[in-house]
Amino acid sequence: MISEPDSVLLDRRDPDRNMARFYRLDIMPDLFGGVVLVRNWGRVGHRGQERQHWFADLSEALQQQATWIRRKQRRGYSLISYPAVP
Hints:
This protein has one helix and five strands. The protein is α+β, with helices and mostly antiparallel strands.
């Protein structure tokens, strides 16, 4: 089980279109032994929107996180930070 949030930050900027957006994916433990994938997105400098997805185990959450990373990279987002593997 994880003890600290597992965070991924993606960024998309296009000065010609006045676009500066972020997309953050956090994996955190919940109170009942499961895992929560928290997606947060919006314009840089603003709070943005948030959606949570609950999973029974970490492997399911990691698969879903990888799916979202691929989706966002296809849309032009760049990977800014990724957790270090111990």
